[in-house]
Amino acid sequence: MAKYAFFLGCIAPLRYPGVEKSTRVVCEKLGIELVDIQDANCCPAPGVIKAFSKATWLAAAARNLALAEKMGLPIVTICNGCYGSLFEAAHELNNNKEELAEVNKVLKEIGMEYKGTTQVFHFAEVLYKEVGVEKIKAAISNPLSYKVATFYGCHFLKPSSIKNLDDPEEPHILDDLVEATGAQSMPRKQKMLCCGAGGGLKAAFGDVAKEFTKTNLENITASGAEYIIDVCPFCHLQFDTVQGDLGYSIPVLHLSQLYGIAMGMSEADLGLSTHVVPVKL
Fold first, then answer.
1. Mean pLDDT, the chain cut into blocks of 10 residues (281 residues total)
2. What is the rounded (10 degree) CA torsion for 65, 66, 71, 74?
3. Which CATH number fits domain 140-274: 3.40.50.11810, 3.40.50.970, 3.40.50.12780, 1.10.3080.10?
4. From the candidate CATH numbers 3.40.47.10, 1.10.1670.10, 1.10.3370.10, 1.20.1050.140, the one assigned to the domain spanning 2-122
5. What predicted TM-score, i.e. pTM, was given to this entire model?
6. How far is CA 188 from each of CA 7, 42, 61, 94, rounded to the nearest angstrom?
């Protein structure tokens, strides 16, 4: 059984606990063991902290990497932002001894050290590469006929030069994972457009962020999709909470929740009551 240190991030456990629950259930069914990282801190958010102080960003991320390293496990996360922050920090520190030494000067003050060995993976990446589409299909007990819009987000595939997961402009990983449930991924314009929330835009310029979201919703509606399937709780939050202001009501599901539905989980365990946009199964 594959075993990972589970990095939850901030939004899923605080705003969408069903995403956490469905991830745990789905991973167990697919032979993936998730071990909680005790006392983890924020990833921290790459578009905000890193922009102000790279040293602070690296030190905070390195603390999480060190906790997983002590467990002897690679990290898996269900959030694009967390994945982007931790993956990029690990890439820098695992390949740059000078930066690693500087970070360890900071960690030493709190009695910690990072040796530069932790690997970081996204939940969807593990499903696609470790589990495989065929094994996922075999675990589906409730095949779905949904028409969906897959939403990759910004930090899942990029920077593509170091992640090398898929074609960053015309990807297929998430589409393949979604269609393993029987659902149909609908083609649309501007598929890789940002949700609008990233990089502090949502907090500083909320109206501008909504314009990005509105364009996405227009394209999703034109595609004929009935659901939005994301792999990031922050994208999830943006689509779920601002649609009412924009006159839309397309249900939003994290990939783990879609799998949970296809594997027979209840609405309560899926946490659908916490969604602003109602989800009708």
1. 94 96 98 97 84 91 98 98 96 97 97 98 97 98 98 94 94 98 98 88 81 97 98 96 96 98 96 95 82
2. 20
3. 3.40.50.11810
4. 1.20.1050.140
5. 0.96
6. 32, 34, 35, 38
